[in-house]
Amino acid sequence: MVAEAYHVSVATHTLVTNIQPAHYLSKGANLSGFKVHFNNSFSRCGTIYSRFVVWAGGTYHNPIIPTFPGASLTIHYGHLSSWNKVPIRGSGPTVIIGGGESGMEAAYNMISLGRTSHVVICDGASPWTKANSLTGKTKERLRWMQSIGAIKLISTNVVVVTKGITVQGPVFDIKLEYGEHLQTGTPPIAATGFSVKSAVIKDLFAWDEVFATPIINSDDESTVTRGVFLAGSGVSHNREHEKVAFDSIYKFRTRFAVVAKSISQRIGTWKGGGDRLREYQLHNMYYDDI
User: Fold this and answer.
1) Distance between CA atoms of 185 and 285, rounded to whole angstroms?
2) CA-CA distances (angstroms) from residue 208 to 11, 102, 228, 232, 270?
3) Cα dihedral value 45, 50, 54, 57, nearest 10
């Protein structure tokens, strides 16, 4: 719908395989920009040149897999094609590792669809206690799950998962950081998030190794490759010793106009952009207080 309204050229079934800084000739002018490679014939030679690249490749294709012993026994949130595919066994709880947006969404779907009546979420970071960790919608869902007694939140990390076999079937033993154990017949769900660190862009950004996030400036532009911008759930900024993550559509869409403004100013088309910007601000779609 947006593409049709604004006459945006969209290439479907197209995979970007490489992005390289490059110099090229356009309308008689020598320009600095990027050579973008594709896996098909989107362009006649399988590449196009551009002055700017906005990477909005998302994170869902790069699940962060836990590294504790027995992590292979868990089912990662990103590998589930349907909540009906989670094999519910026995009367034990459904254990979810990770209490951020992914964990809460997993819990809500499992409960609201009637797949389970008892969820235990384990996360030593206790994101449900932090003001900016969950969206308003997710907080509402959490309150509903708590009101019906369907969810238990444990501020402890999982350290080991083991699997045993009984007459009734498999049993998963989930050992927590301080020695407590949870047992269930249902494989634990790892809601440990996703990474934006795709092989295509890993060399175009500097990286915060603690949070595994790209380091970007106030315009969401790479600090090491001028002209490459980041959009989507991988956007985050450090503010007052706190990592502020724009990790849901309600958050990261407020940064789209920031990127557009920066590019427009550089190519000299900003002129009347102030009126459009005020429209975005009026609808809470422009956030630049970084």
Assistant:
1) 45
2) 32, 22, 17, 17, 32
3) 10
User: Distance between CA 77 and CA 96 in Å, rounded?
Assistant: 9
For the beta carbon of residue 283, count every other beta carbon within 10 angstroms: 9
Residues 6 or more apart whose CB falls under 8 angstroms from that of 3 comprise 10
Q: How far apart are CA 154 and CA 174, in angstroms?
A: 13
Q: How many residues does the chain have?
A: 290
pLDDT under 70: residue ranges of the chain = 41-45, 241
Residues 6 or more apart whose CB falls under 8 angstroms from that of 213 comprise 196, 207, 234, 236, 243, 245
Comparing CA positions, the residue from 244, 246, 257 lying closest to residue 285 is: 257
**What confidence tens digit (pLDDT) does each residue in 225-246 have?**
999 999 998 899 987 767 788 8
Tokens of 14: 């197209």
Q: What pLDDT, on a 0 to 100 scale, did the predictor assign at position 162?
A: 98
Burial 20-55 (b: 16+ CB within 10 A, else e): eeeeeeeeeeeeebbebbbeeebeeeebeebebbbb
